[in-house]
Amino acid sequence: MATFKAAYQVLADSLAERGVDISAVKKALKAQWIETPSWGYADSGTRFKVFRQTGAAHTTKEKLQDAAQVHKYTGVAPSVALHIPWDKVDDYAELSAYAASLGLKLGAINPNLFQDNDYMLGSLCSPSASIRRKALDHCLECVEIAKTVGSNNISLWLADGISSPGQDDFRDRKHRLQDTLHELYAAMPNPMRLLIEYKFFEPAFYATDLGDWASSILQAQKLGPRAMVLVDLGHHPLGTNIEQIVAFLIDEGRLGGFHFNNKKFADDDLTVGSINPYELFLIYNELVAGEQDPAVNMDVAYMIDESVNIKPKIASMIQSVVNVQEAYARALLVDRKTLKEAQASGDVVKAEETVLSAYRLDVRPLLAAVREEMGLAPDPLAAYQASGYYEKVCQERAGTAAGGYGFDGA
Ligand code: PSV
Ligand code: MN
Predict the structure, then answer these.
(1) Are the C-beta atoms of residues 371 and 75 closer than 8 Å to each other?
(2) Which of 38, 83, 103, 242 has the CA that lies 20 to 30 A from 259?
(3) Closest to 259 in 3D by CA, of 201, 190, 324, 316
């Protein structure tokens, strides 16, 4: 990174030649906001094994301390999502003040509807009215927590589904969900939003109640304008064109949230951009196209939802944030005028080359220059690794009780 200034000048000159307003690009990059998840700092793994890491966070306050490191070195990760009850505390106002003392805000509140034995047949879709009530009460508890900590997002991943054909009636379940979500939505004060996440598989073996973006948007449209769809990159069948889903959701005014991660096979929760950076860029290409369209109104909560199993958590989170920044920077540099002209004239090669040439740009010197203007080190990962924080917490946390992600049997 020592030489980033010379490389930045070359890039800046070529962009200026193209008529790019570099200060506007830098302004957008400085305003980027990427939330990180409390659970991404704790031990996690698969149902087969959760490997314990000495440096991983055990308590919610430790998770916040680690998240503060990610923000300290990247400057664009100022909020942290909570998962309840993994992050249950007696005093949420005190937790919020603690977060503020670290320079953080508390972000999306995630109810947990998947780790209670009562939910074997479902939570908000359960055939049992009393279990639906229990699940709903937990969601309402999360609304109260959101009010206390000043969060405007309830992020709902519904693990409900059925595991054998014939087990339950699809349409009855859909109606039960409509009713329970209706009550939840009614309890959410404006401007609080319900972000409805979908996932096509897991944990049910046969069908999932919110398995795709269609099932999420249908519910959102029935609820009202503050019910939106949340796209988690790991929740689609292989081969799905996620950028097209993103474009459609933007067009419908229903893209409310993002969970960035990457997958090779399924919901692997890998470091963002580690497997398919081109897909990430193409998604950002749609996001920027929406942002720059005066006819479009976008309010998207961008979050990382990763749970790497063997890499150190903070370092991976910094890699993810940086990869998201790079995807955004490249998408901001797509020559949209040329792209539109090529699309209109049917020049397929030129259109593709226009997109690809932005993807091929090395935007690291640009981001280094942006960070320098923000008073940050040009290379966040190197700066964090040189800080000695990880070695310090490894010593401090060695031998403390394992906790965190909440998988039992680990
Ligand atoms: C489910 O796979 C998910 O993506 C949801 O967002 C959960 O809340 C999160 O992961 C943590 O398990
Ligand atoms: Mn998710």
Answers:
(1) yes
(2) 103
(3) 324
Please tell me if the CB atom of residue 110 comes closer than 6 angstroms to any atom of ligand 1.
Answer: yes
Residue 197 Cα, ligand 2 centroid: separation in angstroms?
7
Q: Which residue has the CA at smallest separation from atom 6 of ligand 1?
A: 157
Can you give the pTM of this predicted structure?
A: 0.97
User: Which residue in 56, 102, 60 sits closest to 81, CA to CA?
Assistant: 60
Q: How many residues are given for the chain?
A: 410
* Contact by Cβ (8 Å): 158, 124: yes
Structural domains in the chain, sorted by start: 32-334 (3.20.20.150)
Q: How far is the CA of 37 from the centre of ligand 2 (A)?
A: 10
Average pLDDT, the chain: 96
Each residue of 201-248: pLDDT tens digit? 999 999 999 999 999 999 999 999 999 999 999 999 999 999 999 999
**Whole-angstrom distance between the N-terminal and C-terminal Cα of the chain?**
41
Tokens of 230: 């949340």
Minimum CA distance residue for ligand 1 atom 8: 157
DSSP string of 364-400? HHHHHHHHHHTT--S-HHHHHHHHTHHHHHHHHHTTS
Smallest CA-to-CA distance from 74 within 43, 39, 106, 29 is with: 29
157 CB near ligand 1 (under 6 Å): yes
Name, in order, each residue with C-beta under 8 angstroms of 14's C-beta and a sequence gap of 6 or more: none
Q: Whose CA is nearest to atom 10 of ligand 1?
A: 305
Q: Is the CB of 267 under 6 A from ligand 1?
A: yes
pLDDT value at residue 410: 28
Looking up tokens 């689609």 gives: 236
Q: What is the dihedral of CA 28, 155, 143, 291, to 10 degrees?
A: 30
3-state helix, strand, coil in the chain (%, to 5): 50, 15, 35
Considering every ligand atom shown, identify the ligand nearest to the alpha carbon of residue 210 and give its number. Answer: 1
The residue type of 51 is F
Ligand 2 midpoint to CA 305 (Å): 5
- Residue 1 — very low, low, confident or very high, per pLDDT cuts 50/70/90? low
Distance 10 CA to ligand 2 centre (A): 39
Alpha carbons 42 and 52: distance in angstroms, whole number? 9
Amino acid occupying residue 209: D
**Residue 159: phi, psi to the nearest 5?**
-85, 5
d(CA 131, ligand 1 centre) in Å? 21
Structure tokens that stand for 321 in this block? 């944030």
